[in-house]
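User: My instructor asked us to take a sequence, write out its structure as tokens, and then describe one feature of it. I'm not sure where to start. Here is the sequence I was given:
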Amino acid sequence: MREKATTLYLGPQHPGITGNMMVKLKVEGDTIVKAETHVGYLHRGFEKLMERRNWLQSFTIVCRICVPEPDPNELNYARAVEEIEGREVPERAEWIRTLVMELSRLASYLLWFGGQNGSAGLYTMPQWSVGDRDYILDLFEELTGGRVYHMYIWPGGVRRDLPEGFTGRVLQTMDYLEKQLVKYDQLMFENTIFQKRAKGIGWIDPAKAIEWGVVGPPLRGAGFKSDVRIDDPYLIYDKLDFVVPTQKGSDVWARSLVRREEFQQSINMVRQIIDKMPAGEVYNKIPNPMKWTIPAGDAYVKAESARGEFGYYVVSDGGNKPRRVHVKGPAYVHGVTLLEEVLKGANISDVSFIMNSLGTCPPEIER
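Assistant: Let's start with the prediction itself. The structure tokens for your sequence are:
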């Protein structure tokens, strides 16, 4: 005899939910039979806001589209504007941009480590990893003046050069994080309880992964070696030595292993960047922002964020503000269509656990 179906609302205040969003669940007992994602509990409407502000003012909006990972938004917007206008970026600025992107990836993964384990009841990890993330935020504060929103990568390059002694402090932080990774292994990846919670949970059908538009660690965790930094190199990634890790399990455990290895890869890349970074200018100055116009045209650029392929389509009609901006992020697929599919048949206790493994920024959906 079937149990009576019950409707359960999880979020937006639930601490395990990724951002301020809600999942409406239809459950029988503690098994989910249907899931429906609801967003709109956070700031929204970025694309239309940008169409009403000049080119430089719009640059201050994009970082809000994903609070834990603002830098890919800044990079994509700047690159799209530069491509339409034909503005060159100094070589040193390209290296600094790459450094910022990899520091951003490390900060994002440290937050992910905490969220993934907190959702499993392993609260020591968020105490460690979120605290360790602050060391990277210290670097961002020194470099940009802001800990969360940086507004540092802008059209023409970056706002300022690296502070004196900054690279040494970055290397010290990388040494520290590499030592901490050994402790993360002992606490998380060698933890029998975490393995039992993660293996076989949140399985994504590899045959459907490409069709559904899965990207980033969830796609690489399904066995696909897909990474924009390799497939369509940008910035100076073609000058760095790194590998794209993959796993075959296509579950939470596989996605966790992918992120763990990518964390190490990012540490290695940061060291390479600092070792090879050339001297020179960091900014190709733009005209007066209030009078700055961009020739008519359009551009689509993409980058590999910590959550996967992240794209911007920007259109100019020759005026002083964007005619159209469209953001294509992983969250729409991962947080709506994929999450609703993967949650079918899952246990209520695994909702936030599965959601964290996919990587979702709600404002990226209600953009």
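For the description part of your assignment, you could build on this observation: The chain has one domain: 5-364. Try explaining in your own words what that tells you about the chain.
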